[in-house]
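[Backbone geometry]
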Amino acid sequence: MSAEMPRISGLMVIVAAALVDADGRVLVQQRAAGRAMAGLWEFPGGKIEAGESAEAALVRELHEELGISTETACLAPAGFGTAAMDDDFQILLLLYVCRKWQGIPQALDAAQIRWLRPLDLHDLPMPPADLPLIGLLNALI
C-alpha cells in the first residue's frame, strides 16, 4: 500500500546543526544584513530542497555556509523548535548535533560566527525557533 505524505500548507521545515567543538562550545552565526531576521544569531543550516533528506540538506548547507564537510552519519538528531511567523506561516526547525567535520568553519554566508558555551547563547538575540533549543543543548553537551 502506498500512501502519500500529507503536506501542511504554510509550514517551512529548516535543518540546522549545533557544531560542538572539543571544549563543548557551539558554533552560531549572525544573519547578514539585508536578510530576514538580519543581525540575529542562529545555528547554521537552511531549507531542505526538493528530493533531499533532512540530513543531506544539512550536509549541503554546512558546506555552503561554513565551507566545512561532514557526513550524514555524523549528524545526531537532537530536537526541534517551532515558531509562528504570522497567522498562516510557521517554521519547524530540526536541530542536529555534529561533533565531527573536516575544515575550519568560516562565515561564508553570515556576518560573523562565534563559538560559545550553550548557557552563553541566552545572551544573544536569536530567532524564536532557535531559543527553546538552548536548554536542550545545555543538557546534552
Summary: The first strand starts at residue 11 and ends at 19. The helical segments are 54-66, 133-140.
